[in-house]
Structure formats: structure tokens, C-alpha cells
Amino acid sequence: MLDYLTKDDLPEGVIDVVDVIGMDAFKSLVKFAGGSNLYIPNEASLVKGVRNRMIRDSFDGDYRKVSRRFGISTAQVRNIVNYKW
Asked: Which of 3, 23, 32, 43 lies at a C-alpha separation of 20 to 30 Å from 84?
């Protein structure tokens, strides 16, 4: 039955999701996680690891320059650069 589902059949609360990801992706999401509580992280938490990697890769010894480039404190830069993985 899901194959015959159209946007007109959907409840108002999911229309925005369908508009963003499309009907086919929405149907796949329903098959995968339908009926469950699904947490979708915000963009900032998803890209934090990427930002930290960019900071480590671009670090040239100047904490202040890197902190200005990424808009974070020099203490945060120190923590990121000195963190032992």
C-alpha cells in the first residue's frame, strides 16, 4: 500500500519533511523507522568533527589565528589540537 501513497494522503505534520527529502526517501524512512522516535541531530553537532579535523589539519602553531578563522576561543583551539585520539 505504501507504493500507492501520495502527498495528498499524508498528515499535515509530515508534509514539510516530504518537501525536503522527497516522497521516495520519505517512504524509505517510513519503512526503516516508522512508528519509532527518531532523533535527527542538528547541523552544528554533525559538523563539529569536521571542524575539529580542519582545525588540526590547518594548525601551524598560532592559536589566535586559528581561533579567529573558526570563531572559537584560543582555549578551544588548544583543547582540539592537544586532544589525544
From this structure: 43
58 grid coordinates: 590547518
Cα separations (Å) of 36 from 42, 74, 83? 19, 41, 36
CA triple 80-84-85, angle to 5 deg: 100
How distant, in Å, are the alpha carbons of 2, 37, 39, 42, 59 from that of 28? 10, 16, 16, 21, 42
pLDDT by residue (tens digit) across 53-67?
999 999 999 999 999
Q: Is 18 exposed, middle or buried (0-12, 13-18, 19+ CB in 10 A)?
A: middle
Nine cell digits for residue 64: 589566535
Check: CB of residue 23 under 8 Å from CB of residue 9: no
